[in-house]
Amino acid sequence: MRPFSFTASMTPVLVGSAVAFAQRQFHPGLFAVAFMAAVAIHAGANLANDYYDHVRGADTPESIGPSGVIQHGLLRPRTVLRGAFACFAVAGILGLLLIASRGWPILLIGVLSVAAGYAYTGGPIPLGYVGLGDGVVFVFMGLVATAGAYYVQTATISKTVLWAAVPLAALVDAILVVNNLRDLDEDRARGKRTFAALIGPAATRVHFALLVIAAYAAIAAGILTRVIPPLSALVILTVPDGARVWRVVKVETDPRVLTSQGIRATAQLHRRVGLWLALAFVAAGLGAG
């Protein structure tokens, strides 16, 4: 399931719920259910990714990205796929609790999120194989996850939560961009046409830089237009982290270095930016109270 990656789905739920808290519309029980449902969908997507990348020949015993349980004979492929469906089923059960409280829009959010997690590498036209993976991650693990968590609390959507979602969407996509940069040559050799494989390594590095810059620019613009709290400026403390990971992504070609100092460092940047944003909204809520 690769639980180390779960912060990518936890952080948007935390931020979306913090925005609701700032508006004095926070329900701890609904937060807990939404949090667990987001993780269950993420776990299911990871397992489905392992299964379909294996059966399509994209992952081998030498591949660095997957968990390796199939390639090294620790689990049968069908067992991993059943695990994915089990995680999606858990998310569905949790979703029923949210639907009972917030109505059919939660059903739509849940169905589309599960479908996106599955279709990323599953189905007749896997989105991650035709250059659409970045869009799926940006929309569903960034915008939808953050706004959906807010909707669970408030039964509505606001400009504030959408603005807060943009930096998270940009940074979670940046994680994928580094991942695809690392796997670019291997993916091309096996016919996996990620966006990075289509545009090449130089443009992929530019893509990464633009996403990181966009995350900070969105926060700065949100503060200047008074859409998000001034305390959000504390994300400036993460700029050295962003600069550090950019220095790695800009020049590094070793897959193991890109994994440890690129992918994981970008995931940490995503988490830290999200935590500072959540703190800013919680502080705003406490101040208003």
Walkthrough of the structure:
The protein is mainly alpha-helical. The chain has a single domain, classed as Farnesyl Diphosphate Synthase. The chain has 11 helices and no strands. The longest helix is centred in the C-terminal third of the chain and has 34 residues.
Structural classification:
mainly alpha
Overall spatial form: globular
If classified by CATH, what would the architecture be? Orthogonal Bundle
What is the count of helical runs? 11
Query: What is the class in the CATH system?
Result: Mainly Alpha
Q: Report the portion of residues in β strands.
A: under 5%
| Tally of distinct domains | 1
Q: How helical, in percent, are the residues?
A: over 70%
Function: Conversion of 1,4-dihydroxy-2-naphthoate (DHNA) to demethylmenaquinone (DMK).
GO molecular function: 1,4-dihydroxy-2-naphthoate polyprenyltransferase activity
EC number: 2.5.1.74
Pathway: Quinol/quinone metabolism; menaquinone biosynthesis; menaquinol from 1,4-dihydroxy-2-naphthoate: step 1/2
